[in-house]
Amino acid sequence: MEISGTVAVVTGGGAGIGAAIARAIVAHGGSVVVADLNADRVAAVADSINGSASSTVAASVAGDVSDPAVIDRIIATAEEQFGPVDLYVANAGTTAGMGLDSDDAAWQTALDVNVLAHVRAARALVPGWVERGRGYFLSTASAAGLLTQIGSVTYSVSKHAAVGFAEWLSVTYGDKGIAVSCLCPMGVNTELLNAGFETDRDGASVAASAVTSAGNVLEPDDVADVVIEALGDERFLILPHPEVLKMYQHKGSDYGRWISGMQRYQRALTES
């Protein structure tokens, strides 16, 4: 994909990876609508991007990006201000819930934000992209979606589902001009890690330790750089932590041994 001239949407764009990807898209010649639940932060991101540009290249929409009505408003804002959406970055995420005692409300939040927000956005955009013969959907999942997330069942399951949806979307529409990428980082220095997993909820400290001890914790701008490169190649699996591929291959080569190793890893985290 050629980023220059692209009209993009980035959800979860009020901070972290989303804000970094939005800035990177504009730096490479695109325009962007950033969306987030936090109205003040997402407006500040758009204002900051526009303040560094010679024209208006960013707009903001506040709301729950898993809500179909909000998704429609995001797409309409892009079309009114910049043109038809070329690239949709489904980046918003949540750590709602934690252990097996997570209630149905926490499960619903995790599934809505981490999975169904992607499904609903694709439902709104893909038919039009097929008519145009092009479009790009980028799903932010997690290394947890390829491996697992020690300490958080809701995060692990919903991120597995996000990977599964991205796979299905690529297989089903890849021959119709629709490119799909799935971003699966490990630790990134964001609020999702620092505030989402670093809480007093049951299992949260173990979940955070599992992420931070597995590899380097990257900065959001580092992830954005990898994303821009991968979009240029239209690469499906985007791994800012290259070691995740070896972990995933090890999991697939001997599932039982991998499970045993993860059990040992969990014990080490809980006993430390």
UniProtKB/TrEMBL annotation:
- SUPFAM superfamilies the UniProt entry points to: NAD(P)-binding Rossmann-fold domains
Family matches, as InterPro entries: NAD(P)-bd_dom_sf (IPR036291), Sc_DH/Rdtase_CS (IPR020904), SDR_fam (IPR002347)
Keyword terms, alphabetized: Oxidoreductase
Q: Which family does it belong to?
A: Belongs to the short-chain dehydrogenases/reductases (SDR) family.
Under which name does UniProt file this protein?
Answer: NADP-dependent 3-hydroxy acid dehydrogenase YdfG
**Organism phylogeny:** Bacteria, Bacillati, Actinomycetota, Actinomycetes, Mycobacteriales
